[in-house]
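Chapter review: from sequence to fold.
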Amino acid sequence: MQRIILYGHSGSGNHGCEAIIRSTFKILGQKCRVFSNHCEQDIKYGIDKELLSKFSINIPIKSLRRYFFAVYSRIFKKSMLRYKYLYKPFTISLSSQNIYLSVGGDHYCYGAYSNHIYGFLNKKINDKGAKSILWSCSINTEDLDDESIKDLKSYSLITARESITYNNLIKLGIKENVRLYPDVAFQLDLIKLPLPKGFEEGNTIGINISPMIERYASDNDIVLKNYIALMDYIIKNTNCNIALIPHVVWEDNNDLIPLSKLYSKFKDTGRVVLIKDHNAMELKGFISRCRIFVGARTHATIAAYSTCVPTLVVGYSVKARGIAKDIFGEYEHYTISAQSLKEKKDLTESFKWILEREEEIRKHLVDFMPEYINKTKYLVNEIKGLSKE
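The token string follows.
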């Protein structure tokens, strides 16, 4: 098999990104070179330093170069000059002998700007005569312009991690190179650290909230109000404890900020614990010992699903709906969108639906998950197939 290179990794401060890297190594049966935006984060969470390479160049916010690129893009309506500079550490290393996996998962979920960056990189790989794979992805197809559709058709392979993305790509005529497989992170190994005081295994509700869903909600306060109402309901109406679990700790997108607000409000109950930052495998170990999980981060909920923990997803995009639909046959009740939160009781009502069907959902996951997770092992055959072309 040809040498495999992973690129588009945003850094392990997002433990979902870390989970994809670790699980890809596991599925491939080998470690690969990783082009990362934040190598220092990867080293901190245990990714081997020898595997890491710089993906892009950081341009200081107030620099003349940033100003030049901004003016150039505005005048000529093109950003290629900026991309050539930003991603030079990656593009100068390209070789026709390699297979390149774009591993971010969400690269085509955030509009034309992100789409065109990865379209540029995909073209560079194709021009070099190498194979390019869009790996374990979800795609918001409503954001795709003609240029992005043409770009997606030129990948050697796209592995869609849920059926809504898969079917939407087929409808757009992106057919020949698309396959449907679960997210590779369902394969992530777990590490069970000692539980902190207040975390009662099997009778603790795991809760994850992210600044990301707050940005998608109808107003800035409604998400936090819903989580407060949910925790208040759990404290007053059940004997469960609550574990607040972060999954992304980037400076500008840090779960610990809203989680700390929730902890401060409820810490005096003696029934709430705030889990500190850990690597993806250790966080999965905590999540696996929850009774029910309510999560906003996709890979936090994947950690819950894969360990058969009944889960309510607070989503904002196609990936939450698609993964739930593939597991349960529908996404209604199993997900609630941040955009739909209007009253502070909305999240609590959705949680009560899960709580009432807890055992039924757990049994379904126990029966369903082994075969579903096993499908990811066949991804290596897709890559081997490309190697032979």
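Two observations follow directly from the output. DSSP finds 17 helices and 15 strands in the chain. The radius of gyration is 21 Å.
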